[in-house]
Amino acid sequence: MFLGLAPGVVAGLVPWLITGWRTSAVAHWLSAVGWLLLAVGVAVLFEAFARFVIEGVGTPAPAAPTEMLVVGGLYRYVRNPMYVAVAAVILGQAAVLGRWVLVGYALAFGLTVWSFVHWYEEPTLKRQFGPAYDDYLATVPGWWPRRPRPRPNSVRGPR
What we know:
By secondary structure, the protein is an all-alpha fold. The chain has helices spanning 2-19, 28-54, 81-97, 100-129, 131-139. The chain has a domain at 29-139.
């Protein structure tokens, strides 16, 4: 239910209310990039939600939070794949529809979720998971996916 509600409203209902799905003239290559962003964003969103259920034994919904810190799957490469995926969906819609207003909306969404993560989510996860979350913060980037760095506290064995 939360999957349909939160991302569905932010990446579906609001863009529809803003644009009515009306298009402007769009280059074919831009439309293709948009469809790719949409497809990847939706796939990432489903994988990230499933990871919360399987690995975290909970959901992203505040009413049923995870019992375990989720660090597998796409969470090995970026701490916030759901937010990144929703932004990709919004930007994909902007490209497909040729509507710059959705780029502005994506930027507003990004600022809003960055603020939420910085001032609420990360402090809450630090309190809940302690040093495990501190280690996660030190090794996995928040917003731009990349290969994980070695853990700062890990001991390397002989080569």
